[in-house]
Amino acid sequence: MKGKKWIVLFLCVTTCFSLMLGACGQSGETAAEPDGAGKASVEESEKQNEMEETAKSDVTLELAVTWTDEVLAKFREVADEYTAETGVKFDIVAPGQEYESQLKVRMANNDLPDMWMTHGWSVIRYSEYMMDLSGENWASDVSDAAKGVIQDKDGKFYVLPISIVLSSICFNKDVLEQSGVDWTKLKTMDDFDAACVKIRDAGFAPVIISGMDSGSAGSVLNPLLFMQFATPTSPSHAQLDSHLDGTINITEEWAPCFEKMLEWRDNNFYNADYLTQDQPGGHKMLGNGTGAFYFRNTANIASALSYYPDANLGLLPFPAMTEDGGASMCISEGTTFGIWKDTEYEAECKDFLNWLAQPEVAGRFFAFDGGTAGLKSTPDDSLIGKLHQEVIEAYGEDIYYDNIFDRKYLPNGVWNSMCEATSMLLNNTPVPEVGKYMQEGFDSCYAEAQMEK
Q1: Contact 326, 115 (CB under 8 A)
Q2: What pLDDT shows up at residue 56?
Q3: Which of 237, 292, 349, 405 is the most exposed place for a label (fewest CB within 10 A)?
Q4: What gap in Å lies between CA 438 and CA 427, rounded to an integer?
């Protein structure tokens, strides 16, 4: 900022000096240009340009993202374009599986990046550390669907929602076709289980799990809980209140979901290396057609396509737990950036978000982030948008939509316990022990949440 002020002062002095020379030389004749004046003028102009470039390039913004590998490379291309235009540089932090744990440590130390991706937690976890952005120029452009997941109870939001993502079941269409499975007919959990048998017998892994990333196993339990409790037609919908008021008996109430995961394991529905495979391995299985179903959000379709661009992928809603139930899907934050309230570079951060909010920039993200538009002005011909339309055509308009189960119905911080409990379950820990561990994690997070109120 100081460099810019000196530039302005320098220009003012130069202008005044030029006017004085002009006034002295107005005698009816054109004043002769002194030897070397033209050269000096060019050098002066070059020096001024160098000073302006130096002033623009002084700022480096720390930006934390959840992406890795090819998707991260695509984002770097976008960020580099902004740097070329403005001179503002980025220190991009991409810790992969350690993203959440690193941010929690930094929150505790009140030492956060200038900007970061909120991965579904902009309101519940991060809002107290972020600037209120609901007064920005692009705020009126936020779609209703995006508002549903980024607004707090006072109507404020703390992120720019470039995209939102759908969470359901990503699948490889070719695998299902080769296995004799019609994805449009998988209405109930019984239908889904029968399809898994066909897929397994055809030589494919029905359900992909990347156990090295505990979040992968947690991302199977989470939708099972959603189907069991959250959907209005679910068999245990009446028990949903116990999750909200802290009276839940996890060992008892979550037993059907624990048993379903064990049933799938015992029926060899998971990939053989489900305990040791890493997350990129899961994406590759989805893309190369060795696996069928991947219980994660649509960003994982983009990741699979980054390895196998010609993969024939689709989107399946969560099946109903009963014959008379309906299909369901979750909506969550996609590419959402917020600004640390204590950043030294508020103006630069906001300028970057304004730049990202432009339709021609925001529209580029859908090709690699697996989302659909979070801003009304963004043209959206995304693959995910087309796949979602296929779902609507196959299953009708009455699909139930809600936020992801743990983010809406469980206390903040319990996700780590869910992931660890699921890993314990798949590693042959008895269900009562898993339930006890999960109960302790739930109770601790619930008590902490009550203290913060």
Answers
A1: no
A2: 59
A3: 237
A4: 15
Q: CA 325: distance to chain centroid? A: 29
Q: What is the spatial distance between Cα 257 and Cα 249, in angstroms, rounded to a whole number?
A: 14
Quick: pLDDT tens for 151-160.
998 999 999 9
Two tokens at 207?
Answer: 């359900």
Query: Does the global pTM surpass 0.85?
Result: no
Tokens, residue 309 = 């661009």
Following DSSP, what letter does each residue of 270-289 receive, concatenated?
A: B-TTTTT--HHHHHHHHHHT
Q: In what order do the strands lie in the sheet with 291-294?
A: 205-207, 291-294, 169-172, 313-316
Angle 255-266/214-225 helices, nearest 10 degrees? 120
Retrieve residue 129's tokens: 């550390």
Per-residue pLDDT of 194-253, as tens digits, reads 999 999 999 999 999 999 887 889 999 999 999 999 999 888 999 999 999 999 999 999
**With 80 as the cut, is the pLDDT of residue 8 above it?**
no
Coil, strand or helix at 207: strand
| Residues belonging to the chain | 453
